[in-house]
Amino acid sequence: MTAAVVFDFDGTIVDTEEPSFIGWSELWAAQGHELTVEMWQAAIGTHDGFDSWGELQRRVGRPLDPALLDVRFARKEALTDANAPRPGVLAWLDDADRLGVPVAIASSSPPDWIERQLARLGLRHRFRCIACCDGTLPAKPDPSSFRHACEQVGADPAASVAVEDSKHGVTAAAAAGLFTIAVPHGLTASMDFSAADLVVDSLDCLTLEDALSHAKARSGRENRT
Length: 225
What we know:
Layout: E1 5-7, H1 17-30, H2 37-41, H3 52-60, H4 67-81, H5 89-99, E2 103-106, H6 111-121, E3 129-131, H7 144-153, E4 161-164, H8 167-175, E5 179-182, E6 198-199, H9 208-224
Helix pairs in contact: 1-4
C-alpha cells in the first residue's frame, strides 16, 4: 500500500466557508438577528452541527419563506465563484503528480457542490476519489470519509496525510489514522486543533514531501512501540 494525500474541501481547497457565513449572516440580519462566528463554528466541517435555518425561525417566532434559502445559497455561490484555490494547494497537487502520490477528497458536503466547484477550478482530474456526504457515508467528525478515501486509492492511512481546516475535520482524520495537518482560517482560527499532528498558517509553509516524511516518521515510531 502507498501513501496518499486526502484533502478536506470546504475552506481547505477553496474558501467556501466565509461565503457561506456571509450568506447566512446576511439572512439573519435581514430578520433582525445576529449570527455570530461562535455559533457558526459548530456547523463548519460537519453536516448537522448547527441548524441555522431552524434557529433563525425559532428566534423570529414564525416560519419563514423557504425562498429565502435560495437567495442565501445564490449569495454563497456567487462569493465562492470569485475565489481561487487556497495558498499552497496547487503546489501540493503538482508535487503529488510529480511524486505519483494519489490525491483524494474527504468532505461532509454533498457531491454536486464539490463537483461543480472542482469543475469551475479545472481541478476535477486531479482527484482520484471524492468521499463525501452522499447518503452512504456519515459526516465528520465520523472518520468514515477518510477511511473510504484511503481504501479507494489503495493507500495506508498511517502513511497518508490529511489536510483540514476545522475541528470536526481534524477529529475525523486523526481517528482514521492519517497524519493530520490543520490549516485554519479566519472562521476556524480559534478552534481547538490539539488533535492535529501539525498546525500551519498555509500549505505554503511546508512541501508535500516534508509532510509525507513527517507521516512516515510518525508511523515508524508507532510501529516500534
